[in-house]
Write a structure and sequence with these properties.
Order of helices and strands: EHEHEHEEHEEEHEHHHEEHEEEEEEH
Number of domains: 2
CATH architecture of the largest domain: Alpha-Beta Complex
Mean pLDDT: 94
Radius of gyration: 21 Å
Largest sheet: 5 strands, mixed, barrel
Number of strands: 17
Strand order of the largest sheet: 6-9-7-8-10
Structural class: alpha/beta
Number of helices: 10
């Protein structure tokens, strides 16, 4: 890998759909969800350190309230590469600020890669080949390369990227100009997308040269770049809340997509645990479980002495963490965010977050 590659981990999210295990000071990226004993953040850092050649090259963007926890989870990282946002303003300000800091440290020709902290990757070798190919393109062309995950089913939970004409082959992998980004589709539209063979899931991972993206942000998101270049992080409270997709990727003419197949999951909610760990067992058990006539259940408890007993249950998630027990049908786990909102609005229940 070109030693100018600087991986940046986006680690400011809350992971509300993993509540009650994910809480305010223990968000999803601090959790171990695959049975490995490593948190998602630690696994992501280890994966990217191999790419960059050293953990000292890895940067993390997180929130001020999580910065101390990030440092504890990643003691080998240099403190100056952990950027703490005073408040969350979505991914566009996070990308803009960290890219500015990296350009100051390494120059505008540095190849920067952005990676969410909470993804699961199965095949490290294929992942490295894909990132190498993207970095090769980004280092030689004015290109913002996004990784598109080759769909395995017509998911309605992801945004999609449509590939246009092929722009070449890098590292043995074909790269395409982006034709368009689309929002999460309904089932029928998702099936049509898969049928064309031209669509990938939007992974939220992208690679570029620092100077290329800074210039594009100055053009397409001046309301972010102007304040950051004038005031730096002190401008955060004045920045608009915008995702990098909306602020830049959907507007730039420099977007390329590299379809990837390295085994990927964004671990969006409790059902992801089943995708990772189910195997041939009747249930996924990350707890002491006594079950009678129970199948298709996901069971998780944090306390060593906690025992979950189920009778006659099917396709449910049961999570026990300290003073909270969650029981939800698997097809309604997305609604956990609504419960979290209810708790936020109730002064007597906010301590549960």
């Amino acid at each position: 890998m070109d030693q100018s590659l600087i991986p940046v981990i986006l680690a400011g999210g809350k992971g509300e759909r993993f509540w009650p295990l994910s809480r305010k000071h223990r968000p999803k990226q601090f959790l171990s969800l695959d049975g490995s004993g490593k948190s998602l953040l630690q696994a992501t850092t280890e994966r990217l350190s191999k790419l960059a050649g050293s953990s000292e090259k890895v940067w993390v963007v997180t929130s001020a309230q999580l910065a101390e926890g990030v440092g504890e989870q990643l003691p080998l990282l240099r403190s100056q590469t952990i950027l703490a946002e005073p408040e969350g303003r979505d991914t566009a300000p996070a990308v803009a600020w960290s890219t500015l800091e990296i350009a100051r440290a390494y120059g505008e020709d540095a190849v920067v890669g952005f990676f969410p902290a909470d993804h699961w990757i199965e095949d490290q070798q294929a992942f490295e080949q894909t990132i190498n190919a993207a970095a090769q393109l980004a280092s030689t062309e004015a290109a913002i390369v996004t990784l598109g995950i080759t769909p395995t089913h017509p998911s309605t939970g992801y945004g999609y990227i449509e590939q246009g004409e092929q722009a070449g082959t890098y590292g043995g992998l074909p790269v395409y100009k982006v034709s368009r980004f689309t929002e999460k589709p309904d089932r029928q539209t998702a099936e049509i997308f898969l049928g064309t063979g031209r669509f990938s899931w939007n992974s939220g991972m992208f690679i570029f040269r620092a100077g290329v993206v800074l210039n594009e942000l100055r053009t397409h998101a001046p309301e972010i770049m102007g304040l950051l270049e004038e005031k730096g992080v002190e401008a955060y409270s004045q920045l608009p809340k915008k995702s990098i997709d909306y602020a830049l990727m959907e507007k730039t003419q420099l977007a390329y997509v590299l379809p990837a197949s390295f085994g990927w999951d964004d671990l969006g909610d409790w059902n992801a645990i089943e995708r990772l760990l189910k195997g041939d067992a009747a249930n996924v058990e990350l707890a002491k479980h006594v079950g009678l006539d129970t199948q298709g259940a996901i069971l998780y408890a944090t306390g060593e002495d906690e025992v979950i007993v189920t009778i006659g249950l099917e396709d449910v998630v049961v999570v026990r963490d300290r003073n909270v027990t969650l029981i939800v049908k698997k097809d309604r786990t997305q609604e956990i965010k609504q419960v979290v909102k209810t708790l936020q609005d109730d002064p007597q229940l906010r301590d549960l977050l």
